[in-house]
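Q: Joint fold for the lines below.
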Amino acid sequence: MRVTEELLAAYADGELDAAGQAEVEAAIAADPELGGKIKAHRALKATLAGHYAPIAQEAVPPGLAALLATPAQESGAGAGEVVSLAAARQKRGLPAAFRRWAPLAGPALAASLILAIVQPWQGGTPEGYAGGDLAAALDTQLAATQADQTGTRILLSFARENGDLCRAWRSTDSGGIACRDDTGWKIERQIALGKAQGTEFRQAGSETDLLAAAQDMAAGEALDAVGERAARARGWKQP
Amino acid sequence: MKRTSPSVSSAERHGTLPQSFENQVLDLLPRLRRFAIGLAGSRPDGDDLCQMTIERALARREQWQEGTRLDSWMYRIMRNIFIDEARATSRRRETFVDPDAGQSVGGDGAQEAAVELSLVDRAMARLPEEQREAVLLVMVEGWSYKEAAEIVGCPVGTLNSRLVRGRDALMAMLEDAECA
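A: Joint structure:
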């Protein structure tokens, strides 16, 4: 078969189904030059993601946020509190430390938080370790490039004092921090998050708490897109 | 870790909340702003694009259906405004692209980094809008081809080929810059 540039790009971006992947991989095996193109595509993607990532870390200009502040008197009872909360958040901004972290946390710096302890993970994984979809997400997803999808989202990755790599994640109703050791992804923190996004009001704070916990654990900065990619390539082992 | 707020319980009691729309848009702003600045090529123009997007979204909020994704709806609005604006002015390259825009992006970074950043900005600015948005949506914003195609309003195959053309043009420009 002829492997078009479009097909190669789709392969590099993880867009192909299993059959398509197999076809492209067979073609790559036969023509090493194709493998180089895949690498170049992914390298450019990493460059661009890294280039634009800082913008999402910046505090949103107050003028823009102000467009979204609704006068409380226009809405019904109960709404005023919500508005004031949003306004307070805008006035307050995030602490400087969060601004450094928020970027890597991607879009979701807000969600309702109910502090509760979740039941230990069930299933065939050792107690206290991530299993199934969560483990897969922790293994494969990159905070910098994932879409704002349903299911598990990685918020950020960082190294803690002993060098272990840790990742904060959230799904619709829970979130936490897991660190990689020889056994797998050990769950270090876990919190239940409130209502799934969509119809209900979401309060800022939950992921902020998660990020604050991450920041407390971290030995330094969160990994950037390149660092995260490299860590994934190492299987999340210490460098 | 005590963060229970009275507004949460009252919010739940009251069911629907007129404010939830604004709050959700607010949460999306950092991402939307990144896309806007990438499209427009500079912070001032990107922020203008953000403002127009927010205003249009607020004006048309009843067209958004609860339960559907607000983020892709917002991206689509932004992208449409940008393309309309770009078509409306033949001087768009002068108005939307500040040649020095990249210099400040690195902040306190090393000089080398700042130079590299500005190369990316300049290369992106030279791409046709349709290729630039395809590159940004997939390679920066992380949308799947299908999602990006829906935002743009074109077939997936078209999106795919715009992405490839944009990518190849970017690679060529960045390589040339390295050799220079």
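Q: Anything notable?
A: The domain at 18-179 of chain B is CATH 1.20.140.160 (Butyryl-CoA Dehydrogenase, subunit A; domain 3). Chain B touches chain A through 69 residues (CB under 8 Å).
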